[in-house]
């Protein structure tokens, strides 16, 4: 009888310990932040798959802008490795999820970025008056990027970058020497060179009908460069 009583006590004690441990291992709520691409773009682990989330209503400086690195660090310090709540707002043209992220303490990561001067209120793609108030307050107190005399909005920075790239691609190419000399090209879209010899081993791999044009046309109009195989000087 004593043996049975002792056995029962041990059994109940073990059961109590297991229940205590089980209660202590409460599963985490939300999604874990597994990556921070930049200040306004993070990666969450959802259903064991990485999902890119673009923060709704905010636009942080680009990486090559002033405060771009600081904005990324701010987001990383607040969110990386933590479990957060996501309030989805939709998707953008790149297929990324658009949403507001709430940190473990309940604060909005989106609003924290704007309030601390690490992001602009992205008015073109959001309607959240509170973000506007937070931005005005950050401007007034010269927080973060607002400590600079003339900060450039990231959308203007991206626009200027695109315009410079387009201008460079449209810049006229000087007419080459021997512009009237006949050269050979493969008309397929992936080809980017011209050939000085029809028996060039590279040209022989062409799957289309080989065309004959002048060197001037190949360089100026088609923006082709000389094949390194057949154009070598002997």
Automatic annotation (TrEMBL):
Keywords: Endonuclease, Hydrolase, Nuclease. SUPFAM superfamilies: Staphylococcal nuclease (SSF50199). InterPro entries: SNase_OB-fold_sf (IPR035437), Staphylococal_nuclease_OB-fold (IPR016071), Thermonucl_AS (IPR002071). Residues 156-175 are annotated as: Disordered. GO terms for molecular function: endonuclease activity; hydrolase activity; nucleic acid binding. The keyword Repeat does not apply. Residues 27-148 form the TNase-like domain. This is Thermonuclease family protein. PANTHER family: EBNA2 BINDING PROTEIN P100, SERINE_THREONINE-PROTEIN KINASE 31. The keyword Hydrolase applies. Transmembrane segments: none annotated.
């Amino acid at each position: 009888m004593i043996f049975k009583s002792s056995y029962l006590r041990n059994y109940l004690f073990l059961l109590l310990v297991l229940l205590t441990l089980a209660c202590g291992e409460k599963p985490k709520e939300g999604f874990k932040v597994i990556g921070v691409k930049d200040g306004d773009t993070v990666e969450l682990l959802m259903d064991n798959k990485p999902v890119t989330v673009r923060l709704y209503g905010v636009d942080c400086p680009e990486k090559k802008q002033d405060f771009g690195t600081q904005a990324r660090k701010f987001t990383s310090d607040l969110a990386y490795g933590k479990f957060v709540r996501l309030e989805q707002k939709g998707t953008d043209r790149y297929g990324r999820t658009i949403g507001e992220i709430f940190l473990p303490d309940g604060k909005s990561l989106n609003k924290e970025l704007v309030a601390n001067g690490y992001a602009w209120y992205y008015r073109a793609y959001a309607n959240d008056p509170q973000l506007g108030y937070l931005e005005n307050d950050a401007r007034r107190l010269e927080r973060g990027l607002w400590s600079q005399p003339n900060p450039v909005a990231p959308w203007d920075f991206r626009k200027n970058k695109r315009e410079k790239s387009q201008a460079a691609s449209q810049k006229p190419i000087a007419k080459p020497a021997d512009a009237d000399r006949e050269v050979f090209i493969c008309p397929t879209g992936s080809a980017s060179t011209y050939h000085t010899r029809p028996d060039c081993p590279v040209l022989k791999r062409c799957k289309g009908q080989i065309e004959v044009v002048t060197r001037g046309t190949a360089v100026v109009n088609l923006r082709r460069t000389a094949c390194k195989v057949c154009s070598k000087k002997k």
